[in-house]
Write a structure and sequence with these properties.
The chain is built from ten helices and two strands. By secondary structure, it is an all-alpha fold. The radius of gyration is 19 Å and the shape is globular.
Length: about 250
C-alpha cells in the first residue's frame, strides 16, 4: 500500500474498535496513523544505502516483535486499557497485512523466503481505487463528525466521544506534523522513483493521475482533521471553564 492507505486503514481500525468497545478517551488517532507508517522508515534507509525497502521492517518476525512491544509498553508502561494497547499494536501490525493485500512480501525475511500476496498489484488501477474508496470513507466520517453541532456531537450513539476523535494534545500535534511531512516525502519519493511526473504532464496516464489526486486528497483530509481537532479542543476548553458545563 501507499503510505496514504496505511494511514487511512489505521484510522478506520481505531474508529471501529473505539465504537465497538465504546472507548471515549485515551486514544490518539493521529498517533496510531504515525505508528502504522514506522515500517516504511526503510524508505529512508534505502536511500542512504543502509537497508533495502520491504525487508527487515516488513517481516513477520519483526512485526510480531514490535507489535507485541508496543502492546506491552502501552499496557504496562503507560497504564492504558487492554483495548487501547491493542489498538496501537494493531496499527503497527496492520502495515504488514496491508502490504500483503496490496503487493507481495517475503514475510520470513531474513531467515527464509516465503513471498505472500493475494494478487492485487502494487500501483495498479485496482490498488489506487481501493485506497481512494478507503479515503472517501474516512473523509466522510471526519466531515460528518466535524460539522455536527458541539451540543449534539459530544457523544454518538455508541458512546464514542467526539473529544476522543478530535483530541489535540501535544502528542497529537507532533503526530500530525510527522504524518503530513511523511505523506509529502512519500509522494515525492514514489514520483521520483517511477519518473512519473513527465508522464503525468505528457501522457495523462490514468493511474498516475489518480495517484496524484489520492495524495492531494489525503493531505487535505489530514489538514482538515487537524484543524477540526484544534477547533473542538478550543470549544471543549471553553465549555469546561463555564460553570455547570461538562
Amino acid at each position: 500500500m501507499f503510505l496514504v492507505g496505511h494511514a487511512v486503514v489505521a484510522f478506520l481500525i481505531v474508529y471501529i474498535v473505539c465504537r465497538i468497545f465504546k472507548i471515549n478517551q485515551g486514544v490518539s488517532f493521529a498517533l496510531a496513523m504515525v505508528i502504522v507508517i514506522i515500517p516504511d522508515i526503510d524508505i529512508v534507509t534505502q536511500s542512504l544505502g543502509i537497508m533495502p525497502h520491504k525487508t527487515f521492517t516488513h517481516s513477520l518476525i519483526v512485526s510480531a516483535a514490535v507489535g507485541g512491544s508496543i502492546f506491552l509498553v502501552t499496557r504496562l508502561g503507560f497504564k492504558q486499557t487492554f483495548a487501547v494497547a491493542m489498538i496501537y499494536s494493531l496499527a503497527y501490525v496492520q502495515h504488514l497485512i496491508a502490504d500483503i493485500v496490496i503487493g507481495t512480501l517475503n514475510i520470513l525475511y531474513p531467515i527464509g523466503n516465503l513471498p505472500v500476496s493475494i494478487g492485487i498489484a502494487y500501483g495498479s488501477l485496482t490498488h489506487i481505487i481501493i485506497e481512494i474508496l478507503l479515503l472517501a470513507i474516512a473523509a466522510w466520517i471526519i466531515v460528518g463528525k466535524a460539522f455536527r453541532s458541539i451540543d449534539n456531537s459530544t457523544e454518538d450513539d455508541n458512546g464514542m466521544a467526539t473529544s476522543s476523535l478530535f483530541q489535540f494534545s501535544v502528542t497529537d500535534k507532533i503526530s500530525y506534523i510527522i504524518l503530513i511531512v511523511s505523506l509529502i516525502v512519500s509522494f515525492g519519493y514514489i514520483l521520483d522513483g517511477l519518473e512519473s511526473l513527465p508522464r503525468l504532464i505528457l501522457d495523462t496516464d490514468l493511474e498516475i493521475a489518480l495517484f496524484v489526486l489520492l495524495h492531494i486528497a489525503a493531505l487535505m483530509w489530514v489538514f482538515f482533521m487537524m484543524l477540526a481537532a484544534r477547533r473542538y479542543a478550543a470549544i471543549f476548553k471553553r465549555r469546561s471553564l463555564i460553570p455547570g458545563k461538562q
